[in-house]
Write a structure and sequence with these properties.
The complex is a heterodimer.
Chain A lengths: L27 H14 L5 H14 L2 H13 L1 H9 L1 H6 L10 E6 L4 E6 L8 H4 L4 H4 L1 H6 L4 H7 L9 E6 L4 E6 L11 H5 L4 H5 L17
Parallel strand pairs in A: 1-4, 2-3
Chain B lengths: L27 H14 L6 H9 L3 H6 L2 H15 L5 H6 L18 H7 L4 E2 L12 E4 L18 E11 L2 H4 L8 E9 H5 L7 E8 L3 E3 L1
Antiparallel strand pairs in B: 1-3, 2-3, 2-6, 3-4, 4-5
Helix pairs in contact in B: 1-4, 2-4
The chains are: A alpha/beta, B alpha+beta.
Chain lengths: 223, 219
């Protein structure tokens, strides 16, 4: 399901008009196909480049990158300090750079402060460390309520924090991208970085989840 | 613009719906909409800010009913027409009716890794010293531009504190409308829950936005 309105059928738009003078609109699938073929015919885009862009995010760039950053921050105090001081540079030392991660800031969860990231105006998200955002992150329910009722949103994710834990919401309105470093779970002493990274879920780096404790099943947002 | 994209603080959309083991794309056409949007962006025919503005310019009812990549596809249609690269008649016909214009750049598959690694940094050399320091109290301006802005409605006319400084960055309100990059100092401004949401707001809540200097007055 991808619609902002989860139950909106594609055919709901069949009778609408737009400013290009269509008297009827093609279903979106045909419309995208036509758009791509026009752009290819005109020599503006190369299908192989489109394939390469898709493949990058389907196979190479995803939340495992961010999980490795977090694991290193848990394990290595010097790296943690570097991440706090200049997250873009610290993350670049691990090879994660580029589009939608040009200006990174890392925020660190503590018992006193819990950080939550949103983009109310569109879908800004740190691609080099988390990949492309899940649908819920781009959806109206999350974008509308994360800034006003973050505890309610967190409860829907199964995260209930003590009332003494302050909530710090970061609305990504510019090109700065935020990475939440979740708290290191208990009982993880002696685990190496790869094992630690297994505990770092995608949602825990957005702030809608916590890191897993060892021995619990991989759940939501681990991809 | 006060469009449907500016969702912060709205009611009525229901709970956040998550999908177990969600795929990156939900249909083949979503893959293509994503890829073709990035590939056209790489031609330099418009700015990232202009592309955001194209998407938020969809009529609110259409924006709110569309899936995410549908918004991207419809935004891209607007961009190619506005840039004079594709005719409205061609979109209607669903095929090219004329030869294409000559573009400065066309992204090849080989160039994709380098283009993604380069990204599009927006920090620029500042033309002047920053007006504000971390800890300063500031008030956001009450503005309602018909064009692109990144100052959300819920944070207009609100008093907060400078939490971070980010140097000078490309100013989207100008750059979306062929106004050039016009870089300005960029700050993270932190507001309390009660300042934004009034009575009954969570007193432990803070919400920050990233705000360009011209959005701010000293408070």
């Amino acid at each position: 399901m991808t619609a902002l309105h989860q139950d909106e059928p594609e055919t709901a738009h069949a009778d609408e008009h737009d400013d290009h003078g269509h008297s009827h609109l093609e279903p979106i699938e045909a419309r995208v196909k036509a758009l791509e073929s026009i752009l290819v015919e005109k020599g503006y885009v190369e299908p192989a480049a489109i394939d390469a862009l898709i493949e990058t995010y389907e196979t190479r760039v995803g939340p495992r990158n961010g999980a490795r950053v977090v694991a290193r921050a848990w394990e290595d105090p010097e790296f943690r300090a570097a991440l706090a001081a200049d997250a873009t540079a610290a993350i670049a030392t691990m090879g994660f750079v580029g589009r939608q991660g040009e200006h990174m800031v890392a925020v660190f969860n503590t018992p006193e402060e819990h950080h939550l990231v949103v983009c109310t105006l569109c879908s800004c998200y740190p691609w080099p460390v988390l990949g492309l955002p899940p649908t819920w992150y781009k959806s109206a329910p999350y974008r509308s309520r994360a800034v006003m009722d973050p505890r309610g949103v967190l409860a829907e994710f199964g995260v209930v924090l003590p009332e003494t834990t302050a909530i710090r919401v970061w609305d990504s309105t510019a090109e700065v991208r935020y990475l939440v470093v979740p708290m290191r779970p208990e009982g993880t002493e002696g685990l190496d970085e790869e094992r630690l990274a297994d505990l770092v879920t995608r949602d825990s780096m957005i702030g809608t989840g916590l890191a897993r404790t060892p021995g619990t099943a991989a759940g939501e947002g681990t991809r | 613009m006060n469009g449907a994209q500016d969702l912060g603080g709205m009611h009525g959309f229901g709970p956040v719906v998550r999908e177990a083991d969600e795929p990156l794309f939900h249909a083949p056409w979503e893959r293509r909409a994503f890829g073709v949007t990035l590939a056209m962006g790489a031609t330099g025919s418009w700015t990232l800010d202009a592309s955001r503005h194209a998407r938020e310019s969809l009529p609110p009812a259409e924006y709110l009913c569309a899936s995410y990549y549908e918004i991207w596809a419809k935004g891209l249609e607007r961009l190619v027409v506005q840039a004079g690269l594709v005719g409205a008649d061609e979109l209607a016909a669903g095929r090219s009716l004329r030869p294409g214009a000559r573009l400065a750049r066309v992204l090849s598959a080989e160039a994709v890794p380098a283009a993604l690694a380069r990204g599009g940094p927006t920090e620029r050399e500042p033309a002047a010293a920053p007006r504000f320091a971390v800890g300063d109290r500031v008030r956001t301006r009450v503005i309602n531009p018909a064009g692109h802005t990144r100052l959300p409605r819920y944070a207009r006319g609100k008093t907060g504190e400078i939490a971070l400084r980010h140097g000078a960055h490309v100013f989207p309100d100008a750059n979306a409308h062929r106004g050039g990059e016009a870089p300005q100092h960029l700050y993270t401004v932190r507001f309390t829950g009660p300042e934004l949401w009034g009575e009954g707001a969570d007193p432990t809540l803070t919400v920050s936005i990233d705000a360009w200097e011209s959005y701010l007055d000293a408070a």
